[in-house]
Design a protein that fits this description.
Cyclin A, domain 1, Collagenase (Catalytic Domain), two-stranded antiparallel ribbon, 10 helices
């Protein structure tokens, strides 16, 4: 409790600092979604950006020079998920690693006979419960630039961070009340199965096919759709939209 008191007081001091005009221009230029928000929400975003930049370590990789442009752009996009909600600012997250472009990641894959094989694959980003988010700067910029395409790398990876705050990242993040999990499991489980079926029949979907990877990826992909294609999501998947609206305490349809 004492630690929490000092943390809140430190964050209040950080938010009380004048917000740099240069940072505001970076947000206007690189995170156009913020222009859809009400004035009080923009101020809330700025406070969240100040805390995230102050508390998280941003590291450039593969020759990327870390600067305010990168830090503030990423923090502003991540802050969108925190609007209107009580937040501890992604408590499981310590550092954000940023590559200039897509990068090669290694993973272990089981093979017949009980063996394990190391493979390499090109990645745009990833989120780890061990305290790291990894992002491609090119794809971060591309995802933020078009606020209507339903693809936003930062929203996706930071949704994973919200998910991992509760139950290790299973597609069921911490909800407002325990009683809400029944409807959450029913709706998201049904919609996940429907996406599998639609893709199997080669039907067009507004939810990206990557969402069928597992329930955690489904939640992250739907988060992108919820913020960037809310009208279509509400029309085609009204119960799913309502679940996301209840979790994020936002109604993006009113912004479009």
């Amino acid at each position: 409790m004492i630690f929490g008191f000092f943390k809140r007081r430190r964050r209040a001091r950080v938010k009380a600092r004048p917000f740099p005009a240069k940072w505001r221009k970076i947000i206007e230029r690189n995170v156009p979604y913020v222009s859809l928000l009400k004035p009080e929400q923009k101020l809330e975003i700025e406070g969240h950006v100040q805390v995230l930049v102050d508390e998280k370590t941003f590291t450039g990789c593969a020759g990327l020079e870390m600067n305010d442009e990168v830090r503030v752009s990423i923090a502003a996009s991540a802050a969108i998920l925190l609007l209107n909600r009580k937040t501890d600012y992604y408590p499981g997250l310590d550092s954000i690693l940023v590559y200039p472009t897509a990068y090669v990641g290694r993973s272990l894959r089981s093979i017949p006979g009980g063996g394990v094989m190391e493979t390499e694959e090109t990645r745009l980003g990833e989120s780890w419960s061990s305290g790291q988010v990894v992002l491609s700067w090119d794809d971060t910029q591309r995802g933020a630039a078009d606020i209507h395409d339903g693809h936003n790398l930062v929203l996706h990876e930071f949704a994973h961070q919200l998910d991992s705050e509760f139950d290790g990242g299973s597609g069921a993040p911490r909800l407002q009340k325990g009683s809400m999990y029944v409807a959450w499991a029913r709706v998201l489980g049904r919609e996940y199965e429907q996406l599998l079926e639609d893709l199997g029949k080669h039907h067009r979907t507004i939810i990206d096919a990557y969402g069928v990877t597992n329930p955690a990826e489904f939640f992250a992909v739907v988060t992108e759709t919820f913020f960037e294609r809310p009208v279509a999501l509400q029309k085609r998947h009204p119960e799913l939209y309502d679940q996301m609206k209840s979790f994020y305490l936002q109604d993006p349809v009113k912004r479009y």
